[in-house]
Write a structure and sequence with these properties.
- Helices cover 41% and strands 11% of the residues.
- It is globular and about 85 Å long.
- Helix 1 packs antiparallel against helix 5 and helix 2 packs antiparallel against helix 3.
- With 692 residues, it is of the alpha/beta class.
- It has 19 helices and 14 strands.
Length: 692
């Protein structure tokens, strides 16, 4: 253990410890003097300790990040912390400045929490828009002089501590350390730092290690409890990646009358940017003896162009084809934006995920959304995913938004991981079915099963019951018909096989006949050529959004073929209508069995993502395509011989109608991120919703 005698290593470790103790002390100050937990908010001891444990791991991560720059100064050749007084002085200056900034952020965070009930985030920058008023308010509301003295005094104390550590650990005589010991010590320190930065030591899938994220602090679902688990420096950084001006309020108001018509809002509900409408029990409701169960199966990366029911050759999906034939088959079904996290967000919230960067689920300011699923009276709610639910911070959205959710993820399953995405889909279906069939018959449930196998690296697990890989088709044949290679083709076949096996297991259970099964693809992945699909899919860029969708309940529903354009955001309202649930709808999805006020039913799509997205409004026969600001707009006939031709001048009414719907959907979706979020009035003002 001679490596422990390294002067530089011991100094760096001591600096990490000093920062960690400081951060823990500041966390204790927040808990004792600012948190509502224990006063107006109660929490179980288990939830409290779990959340505080998350917070301590965040503190350790920040302490490590603060000291990492010193590693460069410590191991420079010849001139470094151990040999140069200048380098030691530079390190002292850095440590003092870092402490000054960190303590200041904590002070601002404490004040922000007292004033607005939220940890410090990017929305605080709005106070800089009127510096004079904000400064006067702070001066009149807080003991600024004493706070400043405390800030500088604490910084001076930490600076003194770092100076003492430097004198005692860096200036002492050097001791010779064997090379073998140094290498061993370096490896040990590297491993410890990796685990410290990762923030977890268990349930790690090393093919896809998901680090500790802000969403882990929200496991309890209570905002006040979650505040105890956040680190304000790291949280401020996370939210700094967000747009400080997330929507155009003038544009939202301009398109509100049109969107109110689109949503068929009653006249008495058309208030100032009000989108809420109450949907009564529908006459088309099913009439079973007891409330139907709902099982949603997300088909990873499965586009319509790879499903036999949509015309794909080589029989890749016989089980899904039978489901399409015996259930409700949606010919023109579109996800608003491609990507797994964006589709899950749209399905659950009813809002297209038009976030320009990353995904809406990564935005902690909007992670608690109103959802129809919470209005399913008496239903147990379960979410099953073979991998880590923290990916894209989906766990934060799920646990904060869905009341009483039972979340099953990586680490909860008996089966072992087969690749980066966790357990195999077949094992996921088997274990999920085992959980569902244990639920009493008189207890309705809503279950979401998220598959992942039809995704790179297209793993074919060794245990697949009697599934057989098909290798009789050439790569040329497959590439000419929408499959990149045989691995991808067999991954689609395996997904379909697993769906078939799940249907067999469900039929043998007691819940099959009283369950509505909902299947949808989250997006299509990059394809080659699609001779079997209508030409507009390729030339207009809709193939990534066009995915399979079937609603299957052979004991409850007659087969039906729906040709109208339907969006992913319409699924939950449609299912709620089927089960006879009355509900409040606060977002943009609509029950497809209710008339569409716009005539030809329309779906919104984002055709190109990024800071300057291209958007569109698509019906069963037309697509309006335009930039988000309305520039470069065109209208296209989908089934014409020349779908890429602009028809806007030939059909001006259709063009104007779809153009405005696309713009209205885009602007309204950005606004609804925040309007549909559940926050108190202080938080709404912080985000600008309640600003005069």
């Amino acid at each position: 253990m001679g490596w422990l005698q390294s002067r530089r290593l011991r100094f760096l470790a001591a600096c990490v410890a000093a920062f960690f103790v400081l951060l823990v002390a500041l966390r204790a100050v927040f808990y004792l003097f600012f948190s509502e937990v224990g006063e107006t908010v109660t929490a179980s001891s288990g939830a409290l300790w779990q959340t505080l444990g998350v917070g301590l791991r965040f503190d350790l991560r920040l302490a490590l990040l603060l000291v990492l720059p010193l590693c460069v100064l410590a191991w420079l050749p010849r001139v470094n912390l151990a040999t140069s007084a200048f380098m030691r002085g530079l390190a002292q200056a850095y440590l003092t400045l870092a402490t000054l900034v960190v303590v200041l952020i904590y002070i601002l965070d404490f004040g922000h929490y007292v004033y607005l009930g939220d940890r410090l985030n990017v929305t605080a920058l709005r106070f800089l828009e009127d510096t004079a008023i904000s400064t006067q308010m702070v001066w009149e509301s807080y003991p600024v002089v004493w706070i400043t003295l405390g800030w500088l005094g604490l910084t001076a104390l930490m600076a003194w501590l770092f100076a003492v550590l430097g004198r005692r650990l860096l200036k002492r005589p050097a001791r010779r350390i064997r090379a073998r010991s140094l290498w061993a010590g370096g490896a040990i320190v590297f491993v410890l730092v990796v685990f410290g930065l990762l923030g977890r030591v268990t349930h790690i899938n090393w093919e896809n290690p998901v680090p500790l994220r802000w969403s882990d602090a929200f496991a309890s679902g209570d905002k006040a409890v979650a505040a105890l688990g956040l680190n304000p420096v790291l949280f401020l950084y996370d939210t700094s990646q967000l747009d400080a001006d997330p929507y155009d309020l003038d544009a939202v108001k301009r398109y509100y009358p049109m969107m109110a018509d689109f949503l068929d809002l009653p006249a008495e509900r058309r208030g100032e940017l009000n989108y809420e409408r109450h949907v009564a029990v529908q006459p088309h409701r099913l009439d079973p003896q007891r409330p139907p169960n709902i099982v949603v199966v997300m088909l990873e990366s499965l586009g319509a162009s790879r499903v036999g029911a949509y015309g794909t050759p080589f029989d890749p999906t016989p089980n899904l084809d039978r489901i399409a034939e015996d259930g409700w088959f949606f010919e023109h079904f579109y996800v608003p934006v491609t990507g797994t996290a964006k589709s899950i967000w749209a399905f659950l919230t009813g809002i297209p995920d038009v976030a320009p960067e990353e995904t809406a689920s990564r935005n902690p300011l909007i992670g608690h959304q109103r959802m129809i699923v919470n209005q399913l009276d008496g239903y147990r709610k379960l979410y099953m995913v073979g991998g880590n639910a923290g990916w894209a911070n989906l766990e934060g959205l799920l646990t904060r938004s869905i009341q009483g959710l039972e979340l099953y993820e990586e680490g909860d399953w008996k089966g072992g991981n087969v690749d980066v995405w966790g357990i195999s889909d077949l094992e996921l279906f088997k274990e999920s079915n085992a959980i569902l069939e244990q639920i009493p018959e008189d207890q309705p449930f809503f279950a979401f099963i998220q598959t992942a196998g039809n995704h790179r690296p297209f793993t074919i697990p060794p245990n697949n019951d009697d599934f057989q890989v098909r290798d009789d088709l050439s790569e040329e044949e497959l590439r000419a018909n929408g499959f990149r290679n045989a691995a991808q083709y067999n991954a689609v076949r395996l997904l379909d096989y697993n769906v078939g096996r799940y249907m067999e297991m469900a039929r043998e259970s007691g819940y099959f006949d009283n369950t509505i099964f909902v299947f949808f693809g989250d997006h299509n992945n990059r394809i080659t050529t699609l001779p079997h699909m209508p030409r507009f899919q390729e030339v207009l860029g809709l193939e990534s959004h066009h995915v399979p969708h079937m609603i299957y309940a052979p004991a409850l529903l007659e087969p039906r073929h729906i040709r109208e354009a339907v969006s992913l955001i319409d699924v939950m309202p449609t299912v709620a209508g089927l089960i006879g649930q009355d509900y409040d709808n606060t977002t943009l999805g609509r029950d497809i069995q209710q008339p569409a006020p716009e005539g030809d039913r329309t779906a919104f799509v984002v055709l190109r993502e990024g800071p300057a997205p291209q958007i569109g409004a698509v019906t069963a026969d037309h697509l309006a395509r335009l930039n988000h600001d309305g520039e470069a707009a065109s209208l296209h006939e989908l089934y014409s011989d020349n779908p890429e031709q602009d028809r806007s001048e030939e059909q001006p009414e259709t063009y104007e109608h779809l153009f405005n719907l696309a713009r209205g959907f885009y602007e309204t979706s950005r606004y609804l991120f925040y309007d549909n979020a559940i926050r108190d009035e202080h938080a709404r003002q912080a985000a600008g919703d309640g600003a005069d």
